[in-house]
Amino acid sequence: MDDLNSTVHPSCLQEPPLAIEVINRLDLFGIVLYSIFTFMSSVCFLLYLEECVYVYRKVPPPKKTTIMWVNGSAPVIATMSCLGMWIPRATMFTDMTSNSYFAVVIYKFLTLMLQELGGDEMFLRRNKNNKFRISTGPCCCCCPCLPFVPVTRRLLFWLKVGSLQYAILKTALSVFSIVLWTNGNFDLSDLEITGAAIWINPFIGVLTITSLWPVAIVFMNTRNTLRSLKIIPKYAMYQLVLVLSQLQAAIISILSLDGTIACSPPFSSSARGSMLSQQLMIIEMFIITLVTRLLYRRTYDPLPMDITENDNAHNTHISLTASPAQEDTV
Question: Rounded CA gap, 240 and 148, in Å?
Fold first, then answer.
């Protein structure tokens, strides 16, 4: 074991380097690369600010607040990834900030679909005679035997609670993890049964799956109604941000802990894996920001009423106009 450790560069066993160490070791290619990534994250943030101004002026409340939250997921992740790239020792803080923000976005996307349908009352009115299929991902996609559930106020309440719990608990657990880290009890690379990370991270995974299920239920049962509002590509972008920010980052972290991603002084294997993940994330979030800008930067007209509702309104109008004529005839 001593012979093995003697062949390993000392920096591969140390903490991530300081920001000044990263800057001092950059060659011409590194300076150009870091400049490009910083430019991309800055463009994401500026485009988001411009879109917030547009949405604030053109979209009525409370929908404009929800759109700002949902549309900010990619720029926030890109900005946090850029900070983590320049300051490697802040990676845990930037990642937790991004994940906590996206936890709120999951709930906000559910709220956005309800607001596109006219709000809670209109949603219940449109679907009062319908039943929702709940055998959807990520929880019950392989359980087609589950019964269809009638749309009631109680169902809407539990759908909201299912998404909101992740936004609250994820933020609370992130703060708790930082507190444990300052005391030396939380380390992502510590996979021992006595470590805090091995207990907190799987619990967060369960909360994530639980929060995604209500969003999938509402989307799968209302996508045809909201098709004219481009809800399908919006949902695809939301899912893409989820996969890239959660699954991709987890895979790279596992590869770095396994040693597949080699150490490159002054970066250890885990620090280099985090750096590669952040650089990939900046590129991906830059592209997603451009796409979501085309989807959300538009005028928002109210969704037309259903055909049955139009028929009922038309029949009511005919009966009201016919009544005076009948009285005159009598």
Answer: 28
